């Protein structure tokens, strides 16, 4: 396999503004986004992903119809921060549950939130105004609610979704990424990206097809 | 090419039973499941079922309008049985929903891979059941125009809800349950919506599925977070589902009414909820599987597994029935003992024995293998379980209220035609939503089914027997 850093000719490289016109005419009309390589099996993309990572590429990704076990490790993806964010959201929910119930049922404090609101001492059957056991269910439910909403929101935002437009989605071949094909995309902005060398490199990994993606 | 396995009901522990039959390629799985919602017309049976369901859903609408225009007097609820059909139906429907979360969350945490074929179904069922459930307390309020008083929103009385009441816990529990179930369902569906978007032939379909797919493109960097998020959601939904029916049971257990005031209620309600929910999943899955030819995915092994869960949870419910009696006798409280003797031999004995025979006696047939593998048998048993679980709620609520402490205030509850049509209408609403789901959304979680196929394992090789390779997690 070729090492793109040493063998590529400097002229082969797109400009810093990523606006290089492609060498092969008729393939990409606009800007070049990157190269798309198609693989047929999870095993093939697993091997290929290892080698793309070893070659030193940074701006690249795999696209699979289902999560291929171990592929994220092969790509060197670091563990996500998501669980910590969810914990933060859950704790916020718990605090909300405590404050909400304490303020509304066990105080006489005035506050101003859009409308004037006042806490209201609620005496039931001579029970204490503020006793935690009766408030546990609502605290629990709000913890779960905040954590779940936070989890989904953070998962999408960390992945920069929703993002309805993407260069990949314009490619006819890429439509099978949600069906039965496995793809590797190396972006043109990668420092190691050279149009021809990268293309040959991807072919050498056993890709059944390599195509240019229009930005 | 490997020989395709067509029977996966074997019990050979040295072979891993395949979960998908008759497919050795990912593409055929996509094709099979997508073609259901891509077909120009659904099967004729769908139209017939949809027409009937919509008619019943309209009846529900009319009954609710009639109720709002007239008042809760149109129901059979009256002194001493103030909680009649609306609360029975609420508890029944919320219980139905629990199987969906059990399949999607608890079986996920236990790594039960067979859940993948039925989880989408079951989650959809959860959401529709919770919609039906939420309708009843809503319309039961009497003055529905001030129903926002149940939420902690500043109102004209300058009063807050009473947070020490289980009825308010219900608001939070059911609200959270609905939201989390919806999120779980939607997140699970994202990759499949992307599949439908990518296969869309028309602009409208591409736009409609495209917007809801949020631009999902199967990036492994996204999958990495997605899998983690799904695991966290499952871990959150598991205690949540246990809490929801526990909180519902507190509505009763916290009260002083004989027959309600027992500590067995939370676990007993949760077991009953899962029991009834699985029966409902079967009731929906069996016809859908036949109608759209999904036998490759919802295999006999799946049905058999579900029947085993019905047997287990049914027996747990049976144990709870016995334990309630024992505790009532052991407590030495004459009111408690009377409440239970009265259930079994009093004016509502007919309802009690329907409950016991449908929930405890009939599911025992699943001890026999032939019964677990016979479609007709399991379908009938599941219908009877649905009936029996509705009667369980009827027995708990009505018998305890109708004859409690003072014989002078005893009564007998009779539902009115409005009660009965509202109940029938809620089934119509449920089925209407379910049929729309079957028509327009991916009924089976394609990405997850592909994930459990032996071919999905990147460390195996394609030429292996499906049963031999270690399926990827």
**Whole-number mean pLDDT of chain B:** 88
Measured as a percent range, the helix fraction of chain A is 25-40%
Q: How many strands, which pairing sense, and closed or not: the largest β-sheet of chain B?
A: none
Strand composition percent of chain B: under 5%
Folded structure, characterized:
- The complex is a heterodimer of chains A (215) and B (473).
- Chain A is of the alpha+beta class.
- Chain A contains 6 helices and 6 strands.
- In chain A, strand 3 and strand 4 form a beta hairpin.
- In chain A, helix 4 (82-106) packs antiparallel against helix 5 (136-158).
- Chain A is elongated and about 80 Å long.
- Chain B is built from 15 helices and no strands.
- With 473 residues, chain B is mainly alpha-helical.
- Mean pLDDT of chain B is 88; it is low at 462-473.
- Chain B has helices at residues 26-38, 44-70, 85-109, 119-140, 166-199, 203-213, 220-253, 265-291, 300-331, 334-345, 349-361, 369-372, 375-402, 417-440, 446-451.
- Helix content of chain B is 66%, strand content 0%.
- Chain B has one domain (26-452): Formate dehydrogenase/DMSO reductase fold, CATH 1.20.1630.
- In chain B, helix 2 packs across helix 14 (417-440) and helix 9 packs across helix 11.
- At the A-B interface, helix 2, strand 2, helix 3, helix 4 and strand 4 of A face helix 1, helix 5, helix 7 and helix 15 of B.
């Amino acid at each position: 396999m070729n090492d793109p850093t040493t063998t590529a000719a400097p002229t082969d490289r797109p400009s810093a503004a990523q606006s290089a016109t492609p060498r092969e005419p008729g393939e990409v009309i606009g800007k070049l986004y990157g190269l798309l390589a198609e693989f047929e099996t999870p095993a093939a993309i697993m091997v290929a992903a290892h080698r793309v990572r070893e070659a030193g590429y940074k701006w690249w990704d795999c696209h699979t119809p289902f999560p291929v076990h171990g592929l994220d490790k092969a790509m060197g993806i670091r563990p996500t921060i998501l669980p910590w964010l969810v914990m933060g959201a859950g704790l916020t929910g718990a605090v909300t549950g405590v404050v909400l119930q304490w303020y509304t049922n066990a105080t006489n404090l005035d506050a101003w939130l859009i409308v004037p609101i006042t806490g209201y001492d609620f005496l039931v059957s001579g029970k204490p105004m503020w006793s935690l056991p009766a408030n546990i269910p609502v605290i629990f439910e709000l913890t779960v609610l905040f954590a779940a909403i936070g989890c989904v929101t953070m998962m999408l935002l960390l992945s920069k979704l929703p993002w309805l437009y993407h260069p990949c989605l314009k490619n006819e071949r890429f439509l099978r990424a949600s069906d039965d094909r496995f793809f590797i995309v190396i972006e043109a902005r990668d420092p190691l990206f050279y149009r021809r060398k990268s293309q040959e490199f991807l072919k050498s990994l056993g890709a059944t097809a390599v195509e240019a993606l229009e930005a | 090419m490997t020989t395709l396995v067509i029977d996966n009901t074997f019990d050979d522990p040295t072979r891993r039973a395949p979960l998908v039959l008759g497919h050795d390629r990912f593409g055929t799985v996509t094709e099979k499941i997508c073609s259901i919602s891509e077909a120009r017309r659904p099967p004729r049976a769908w139209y017939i079922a949809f027409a009937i369901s919509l008619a019943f859903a309209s009846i529900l609408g009319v009954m609710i309008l009639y109720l709002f225009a007239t008042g809760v007097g149109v129901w059979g609820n009256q002194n001493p049985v103030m909680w009649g059909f609306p609360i029975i139906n609420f508890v029944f429907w919320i219980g139905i929903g629990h199987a969906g979360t059990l399949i999607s969350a608890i079986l996920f945490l236990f790594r039960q891979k067979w859940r993948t074929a039925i989880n989408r179904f079951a989650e959809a069922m959860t959401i529709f059941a919770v919609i039906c459930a939420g309708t009843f307390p809503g319309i039961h309020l009497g003055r529905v125009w001030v129903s926002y008083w149940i939420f902690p929103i500043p109102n004209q009385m300058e009063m807050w809800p009473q947070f020490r009441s289980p009825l308010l816990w219900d608001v939070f529990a059911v609200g959270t349950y609905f939201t989390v179930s919806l999120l779980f369902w939607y997140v699970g569906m994202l990759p499949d919506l992307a599949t439908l978007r990518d296969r869309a032939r028309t602009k409208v379909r591409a736009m409609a599925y495209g917007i809801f797919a949020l631009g999902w493109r199967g990036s492994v960097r996204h999958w990495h977070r997605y899998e983690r998020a799904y695991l966290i959601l499952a871990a959150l939904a598991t205690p949540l589902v246990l809490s929801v029916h526990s909180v519902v049971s507190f509505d009763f257990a916290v009260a002083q009414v004989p027959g309600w005031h027992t500590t067995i209620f939370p676990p007993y309600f949760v077991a009953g909820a899962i029991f009834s929910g699985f029966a409902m999943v079967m009731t929906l899955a069996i016809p859908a599987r036949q109608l759209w030819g999904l036998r490759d995915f919802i295999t006999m092994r799946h049905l058999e597994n579900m029947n085993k869960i019905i047997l287990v949870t049914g027996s747990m419910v049976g144990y709870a029935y016995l334990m309630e009696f024992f505790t009532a006798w052991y407590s030495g409280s004459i009111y408690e003992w009377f409440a239970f003797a009265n259930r079994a031999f009093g004016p509502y004995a007919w309802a009690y024995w329907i409950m016991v025979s449908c929930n405890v006696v009939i599911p025992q047939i699943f001890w026999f293998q032939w019964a677990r593998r016979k479609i007709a048998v399991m379908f009938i048993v599941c219908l009877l379980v649905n009936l029996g679980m509705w009667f369980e709620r009827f027995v708990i609520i009505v018998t305890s209220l109708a004859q409690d402490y003072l014989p002078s205030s005893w009564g007998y509850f009779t539902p009115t035609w409005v009660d009965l049509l509202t109940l029938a209408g809620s089934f119509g609403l449920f089925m209407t939503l379910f049929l729309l789901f079957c028509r327009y959304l991916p009924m089976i979680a394609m990405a997850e089914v592909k994930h459990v196929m032996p071919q999905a394992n990147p460390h195996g090789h394609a030429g292996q027997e499906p049963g031999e390779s270690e399926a990827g997690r």
